[in-house]
Every structure is written in C-alpha cells, then in structure tokens.
Amino acid sequence: MRRKLLFGNWKMNKTREEAKAFAEEAKELDRFAKAHNIDIGVAPTFLSLCGVRKVNPDLCVAAQNCHFEDHGAFTGEISIPMLLDLGVTWCLIGHSERRTYFGETNEACNKKLKALFANNMTPIYCVGETLAEFEANKTKDVIKEQVLVGLEGLTKENVKKLVIAYEPVWSIGTGKNASTTIAEDICGYIRELVKGVFGEEASEEVRILYGGSVKPENVKAYLGEKDVDGALVGGASLKVESFRQLIENIL
What pLDDT is stored for residue 237 in this prediction? Predict the structure, then answer.
C-alpha cells in the first residue's frame, strides 16, 4: 500500500532563521506523522536547505530545482552534487512557476529527472495545465505530453521511486480548487499512462499527489480518492500549526 505524502513547497518564503525555527517546531510533527504512516517534507529555498537539514534531519527536505549538469559555466544554478553535499536527497522538478516564468520545458525536466535518478535522489515531478488549456478541454493532452516526454528513458525501477504531482496551474495560489472528481480523474489518468509505458507494478508503486490551493479543510476529500496519494501544499505548509491540521484532517 502506498504511504501518504504531504510535501510543502515554500517557494520564495522564509529567511534562514525562520526556516530553522519551523524545522525545530516540526520535530514533534514529524514523529506524529510517521506514527500514522504519513511521510512529510518541505522544500525550502536553497539558502535554508542546510539549516533545516541540520535542525531536523528526520524531515524530508527537497530542493526546489536543480541543474542536470554536475558542474560548469551555469551562473546562478545549483548542481545535484552540491545538494547531496548538504544531505538533500529530494528535489522538485517542473513546477508550473518554473515552466511559466523561467521557460522550463518537458525536455529539460527529463534531463533533470535522469540526472537525479543517476544520483539516487527522489524527484517530485510536477505536471499540470493552464486555465486556457483546461477551458479548451486539452487537460489530458497536456498531461500526456508532460508525462511521456518527462519520463522518457527512465526505467521501471526509477518510476517506482518517483513522485508525480498534478497541479492544475489555474488552481495554484488562486483559491480556485479542482474538484475531487477532477483530481481523481487526472491522477488516475497519470497512473494509466505510467502503466502503459512502465507496467502495472510501477503504476501501483508510483506516488501521485494533488496540488493547488490545498488547505486543512479540503485535504481529506482529496486524499480520500483512490489515486491521490498525498498533496503538494503551498501556503498551508508555511506554519507548523496549519501543517499539523493537514495531517490531523486526513486521519
């Protein structure tokens, strides 16, 4: 049975001291989650990765991005060996804000996924459609391309360890939620795509999250769906108390 996973994407929030304070306060929260077979983690800014890892080494900690090359003339980028040097073994890839604001493509995501798996790291690969694509009934076309191109060349064993996060772009930070019916339909569709390429075993083990204005009051409904294994959370992950409410409300 797939373990539930709640992951907080902090985006460009929290100073180093604020991040360390959260990590300290979250020690009890991590124990509480594990006691109920729930994995939890956060994706701080690059500057806070080391501090959060040191204060709370039991918490899953992800970078928000990485480069696919180990080193080189890539000003402003962070390599996977640099993340490993900090003890970071998770990484978000392809978040809609990276795609929208920084031109990240499915092909670039594919290179990053391959590089992460080559270094035994766990990627959280984000997919999702824009409002225009949703209204034009192109959701599944967009998701199919993102999944098939993004995962091209990966092995069945890679995919079994992968986390995929479905985040409809039109629901991120807008207060607009995809219905539980939509979330289950697309998460189930992603699982079928994985099954078609990598087989049933991989499709049954890959964890698929929903993200997009997830809050304590709606998280239980989403995670009650068969193919939704957890949530990628934005604003509700910035405070320990609201993170606790997320956990309590899915029990």
Answer: 94
